[in-house]
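Reviewer comment 2.1 asked that we show a complete input and output for one of the modelled complexes. We chose the 2-oxoglutaric acid case, as it is the one discussed in the main text.
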Amino acid sequence: MHLLMDSSTSSSSGTLMCPPTNADNGSGVLVFDTSLLQKQVNLPTEFIWPNGDLVLNQEELQEPVVDLGGFIRGDEKETARAAELVRSACSNHGFFQVINHGVEASLIQTVHQEVDKIFKLPLDKKLSLRRKPGGLCGYSGAHADRYSSKLPWKETFSFGYSPNSFKPVVVDYFKSVLGRNFEVTGWAYQKYCEEMSRVSMLIFELLGISLGIDRLHYRNYFEDGSSIMRCNYYPPCNNSSLTLGTGPHCDPTSLTILHQDQVGGLEVFANNKWQAVRPRPDALVINIGDTFMALSNGIYKSCSHRAVVNRERERRSLVFFVSPKEDKVVRPPQDLVCREVTRKYPDFTWSDLLEFTQKHYRADVATLQSFIQWLQLQNQNRSSMSKPSNF
Ligand SMILES: C=C1C[C@]23C[C@H]1CC[C@H]2[C@]1(C)CCC[C@@](C)(C(=O)O)[C@H]1[C@@H]3C(=O)O
Ligand SMILES: O=C(O)CCC(=O)C(=O)O
Ligand SMILES: [Fe+2]
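Response of the prediction step:
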């Protein structure tokens, strides 16, 4: 593999050298060079994950496939049936697939093809698009600019989307970072994000119905939300059994809408074992994130999942993460709290949780619990600072 490092740092993998690129800490940054890495026999230690995270999947997840057609048409019986499937999936592990969602197959196909235009760019061009420290938008190779162990075997390209903008924000982003040649690509992703946002609103309505609260409650709450779109590219890996494309984690966001190609690799930890999500070209995979778990007072689950890599085949996935507007308080509706008697999580904002995952904590399976503890500590410190001192 080919980790380029600064000359003052030695690597376990025998790497090429380049000047330090991380101006912040001057320690040098590993570079995920896919043209070289596939030729290497041994996997560099930076990419090796602990055995506990690598346990093989045993079977396929039996998640419901929810037909949205009847709900979109306003058919009451079919809506009730869809809501019941959503309720049972979300009370258990938080994963389900949706079909007849109204997103054109040709649009999904186009955005998958466009992924290659980004990841097949020359390495130096991709590095010039790298996401800034503490930020989320841009290119990342194995997250090597942020971490030095348990590196994910993937490249990502991420950008923001907000539903109520009057400007085509995605097109503008593509044009500004990649130039005019990427205007068409930008439009494909703009349309895809608009469609994902539309589907997310349908799902929020179904979630409201399934929880027996005002059906528009979550839909209205997320109307001015903020989203992150991420393209994932997982190159083939000779040592695929030692590494992971995305390590075990719960999404810190509220709702995730994912489309994976036919290679497959998404796995969910449910009923005490890893289970594969079968790829379906016509379906979108939906899962509940930590913020929605808090918004449902813990009734709906955000569950651990990961992406394994393939020995022979490259894999692509498109992920749309939905979150509330940054400063909006994350608090479950009163109806749910009354039913459950107690609040499971304190109030927080998405902006606090986002900052936690970008500055203080590497998102994993315990992000929400760790964040709540951190928040409580911050609040204690703040209140002790504001108390009059007796010395
Ligand atoms: C708030 C976020 C943190 C991550 C990007 C967004 C949405 C999901 C998060 C992530 C994908 C969860 C898995 C681990 C992670 C580090 C990754 O492998 O990409 C996460 C993201 C991140 O911090 O980049
Ligand atoms: O690529 C996948 O299938 C999973 C990616 C994922 O879980 C994520 O990006 O949060
Ligand atoms: Fe995820």
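Residues 1-27 have pLDDT under 50 and may be disordered. We note this here for comparison with the apo prediction described in Section 3.2.
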